Amino acid sequence: MLGLSSAVEITVRCLDRAAVLSDAESKHNDYSNRWRLCTVTQVEELKILIRMFPIWATGIIFSAVYVQTTSLFVVQGRMMNTSIGSFRIPPASLISFNVISIIFWVPVYDRIIIPIARRITGKERGFSELQRMGIGLFISVMSISVAAIVEITRLNLAKKLDLVHKPVAVPLNILWQVPQNFLMGAAEVFTIVGQLEFFYDQSPDAMRSLCSALLYLSTSLGNYLSSAIVTLVTYITTQGGKPGWIPNNLNEGRLDKFFWLITGLNVLNMLVYIVAAKRYKNKTSL
């Protein structure tokens, strides 16, 4: 990441040459070709976009992590006890706790966390956009870690009850998935809202709408990345006739290892983000 940050700065400095008149252009007074000669404003706007790129790129991994709430969290829930008395909880409905978490954390953040942070940091918003995104990334690491621990508990119970080779749900209540969904909702409040504020505030004035759309681009790429990771893991772990980490009968698999893999990628992404955020030059400071 240090090399990437250095490369970004070198690239940014080299762009200054795009606004410098060449001898040929000075001789013929021909300034019509914008591919050969740019205005200083155009160069500075492009510099801002390039400096934002490492921060934007870390959002792709976060999106790949977040998509687990609607994919593998649901798969995990199907192999758990979904009954509470006579009422059956659809596994996909557990994502509602993600929404409940958002509803809970938005007022808590605005009414409690921000005033406290404002006193500590002296900033009007309490946290900067970069700090807010960093907090969200950390919470997302906690969410997937909790999911891995729940899966370990479920697999141990399957072994204890001799259900490993039986494609049946393990008697572990699906409400154990509530913490991981609740944490992911909190991560969304911090990270996604922080990204929206960051892209809007730091983008060039003439490109705010375009830069705000970068969030949705990172979300789309994150979905593709998640699918690619699942496909690659399935291919590698099923070699030699093994059931793999994510088989049809989840009791024979190791979904916990997949969650730990995602956690590791998320931790690495968070470290990259920390380096990029520290080296980021605010638009107002340029």
TrEMBL record:
Its main location: membrane. It is found in: Membrane. GO terms for cellular component: membrane. It is a multi-pass membrane protein. It comes from the Eukaryota. Keywords: Membrane, Transmembrane, Transmembrane helix. The keyword Transcription regulation does not apply. InterPro entries: MFS_trans_sf, POT_fam. SUPFAM superfamilies: MFS general substrate transporter (SSF103473). Belongs to the major facilitator superfamily. Proton-dependent oligopeptide transporter (POT/PTR) (TC 2.A.17) family. This is Putative proton-dependent oligopeptide transporter family, major facilitator superfamily.
